[in-house]
Amino acid sequence: MSFSSELMKELLIDSKNNFSYQDNYDHIRFGNIAKESTTVKGSIRKRLEKVFESRGYSVVQKEKGFEETIREKLDLFDPYLFDLEKFYNILSDENSKKLLLQIIAFRILGFTKVKLPINTPEYWKGIKDIEAIADENKFLISKFMNWHLPFVDLNKKGIPVQLYLSPVGIYTDFFIKQYEFANGDITIKANKGDYVIDAGGCWGDTALYFAAEVGDEGKIFTYEFIPSNLEFLDKNLSLNPNLKQRVTVIQKPVWETSNEIMYYNDRGPGSHVFMEEPQSYDGKVNSLSIDDLVFEKSIPKIDFIKMDIEGAEPYALKGAVNTISKFKPKLAIAIYHSLGDFVGIPKFIDELKLGYKFYLAHCSIHEEESIMFAEIPGQ
Question: 115 lies in a domain?
Fold first, then answer.
């Protein structure tokens, strides 16, 4: 079946749901709010019919009544439907295809109508388990939204890592394993001895996750340049001296080309970065592409590339084409920052014609944290 017709079915089924704040709203990420946002009364009507019928798909169920905001969201998705169909068709397993339908339905209908697969009792219990071992007397306060980051010793859970991070962040990184794909006999992850590009180091949690996975023979190259992030990153790495020695921090933004001047306002993970000099800024730094990093440091191989860099992924990938073509690494690339990334990033990798197979994972109960995985079988 085609993506368009399967999405039609997904939307019609989901539109009958009525989830509440209590069972499907991420209060940890977005805080508690007093009133509900987008709801759908009934199902999808003429606008949805028009979108799909224009592509030759008949609408078997016609119901009326949905809010204006849903029509606006459908308008936003209209230009992307053709390329979303392409992404759907190159996904290599049925679970990934089903997940793509669910993610897009969530983005259209909202949390009152779509519950993403990760939202299970086990998910919330896992976060509670991390909260139970967090030392609330030792903590950091982030520059972004004043997030409270308690000290957590994961040795208590059998993982040789200590760090300051939110319990949900720890559970996502080390237990759900956001940058690892596993389905049946397909596993895409950083293995023992791997050399890993960690693009988007932030507070060092992903660097520590990868460092624990690759062992003494592996190496991690972590891009991070925001000063307040670097401060927390260094604190977390210093708590783990055995892992720290496997990590090289690249204090430059990753980009398509090197030596591009970028200006920034330091807001931690919510920092603003500008290509042209703004009226006021906290600092400036030169970019470094992945291809140039590999060349300058004479890195003999790259086995795994992870990118989660706030929408800069398409540019960073262009600056890694030589590395990807030469070493054919496993990929874990965030695509959730824009609809353009959902279609553009898989298309870019596929058009390299290197034989990559594509998969999809999602590690939140809201629309963030969709990760495209790709590998070349036999590599």
Answer: no
How far, in Å, CA of 374 to CA of 347, rounded?
Answer: 12
Same-domain check for residues 200 and 104: no
Predicted confidence (pLDDT) per residue in 76-120, tens digit: 888 898 999 999 999 999 999 999 999 999 999 999 999 999 999
Residue 59: count other Cβ atoms within 10 Å of its Cβ. 18
Q: How many domains does the chain have?
A: 2
Tens-digit pLDDT profile for residues 68-88? 667 777 788 888 989 999 999
CB atoms near residue 37 (< 10 Å): 10
The residue from 94, 109, 124 where one domain ends is 109
> Per-residue pLDDT tens for 246-262?
999 999 999 999 999 99
Q: Residue 225: how many CA atoms within 13 Å on its side-chain side?
A: 23
Closest CA relative to residue 15, chosen from 69, 78, 73, 66? 66
Q: Nearest 5 degrees, angle CA 218-CA 222-CA 228?
A: 145
